[in-house]
């Protein structure tokens, strides 16, 4: 397991090692929210109800799942310490987009 934030000096190396399956769990901030494709991953967002997240950012993070033909599906888990309309709306939008 490794940790990666915007302040991590060797973040590109860590992301590449994760992409190449050199370790199984990467804990990251929102730096991986956009523009990163890694096959066969699941996503867990801790404190998904935190004010730093909006519907769009949660959708972007959930969009890291199922990014290839080989691994077209996966799981995205939103962990919250309270009910959240933002999380609920994100789940609704994702369900609509994936299941019509």
TrEMBL record:
InterPro entries: Helicase_C-like, P-loop_NTPase. SMART domains: HELICc. Pfam families: Helicase_C. Its EC number is 3.6.4.12. Keywords: Hydrolase. GO terms for molecular function: DNA helicase activity; hydrolase activity. Residues 1-100 form the Helicase C-terminal domain. It is an enzyme of class 3 (hydrolase). This is ComF operon protein 1. It comes from bioreactor metagenome.
């Amino acid at each position: 397991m490794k940790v990666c934030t915007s302040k991590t000096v060797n973040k590109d190396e860590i992301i590449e090692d994760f992409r190449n399956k050199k370790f199984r769990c990467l804990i990251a901030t929102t730096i991986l929210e956009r523009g990163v494709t890694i096959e066969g991953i699941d996503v867990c967002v801790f404190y998904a109800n935190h004010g730093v997240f909006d519907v769009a950012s949660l959708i972007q993070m959930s969009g890291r799942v199922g990014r290839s033909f080989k691994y077209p599906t996966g799981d995205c888990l939103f962990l919250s310490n309270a009910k959240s309309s933002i999380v609920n709306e994100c789940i609704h939008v994702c369900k609509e987009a994936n299941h019509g």
